[in-house]
Amino acid sequence: MSGHSKWSTIKHKKGKADEKRGKIFTKLGREIAVAVKQGGGGDPTINNRLRDVIAKCKAANMPNDNIERSIKRATGEGSNVNYEEMIYEGYGLGGVAVIAEALSDNRNRTAGEVRHIFDKMGGSLGTSGCVSYLFDKKGVIAVEKAENIDEDALMMEALEAGADDITDHDEVYEIVTSPESFSAVSDDLSSAGYEFLVAEIQMVPQTSVTVAEENEDKTLKMLDWLEDHDDITNVYHNAVFSK
User: Fold this and answer.
1) pTM for the whole thing?
2) 134-205 to CATH, choices 1.10.3720.10, 3.40.50.300, 3.30.565.10, 3.30.70.980
């Protein structure tokens, strides 16, 4: 998503996501599997990592049946979940900072393919930590504006649940939390009847980089290629685009 304009393009992203629903659900299934394996089992009431992934799945309109099947598959006897977590950091054209999180069963293959995407689009894959210091880990919840949503009521509900801030953007209300408070806030708002466009823990950029017009197409294509890669689950950047 792109800097200040990220919420103005969220509906386009959602439409694009609908076309690739199967791939997105497969990626989310991997995230569930790793959360079950590394977070302490298939019970989201005691596995906070799984709880956060489920919130992300619901915001992506993943059916409950799919979520439950993924959890059962990961907890079943003989489950051979061997996905490895990897984080790739680098730069795009004009110094845009990019972080790509991946879950893969073949580290060498994924690293080579990610490096190729960076190189092909004029970027450069860097070493661990080269750009992550430019981002903060935050819980992010987006609620689309509607006539039946009272901003003051939403703000009160979110802040009382433990949110750090709520911002009024053109089309959405953006609620930001600490990673530790994310589950409590998302659960509270969901119980109060709010529906989410986005609900996940993200790497939020501290500052932004405005992409030069001549670099926009290549930068956007690089980000799209990364997001479309089978092994990459999340892509974060600090780019701001004019379009």
Assistant:
1) 0.87
2) 3.30.70.980
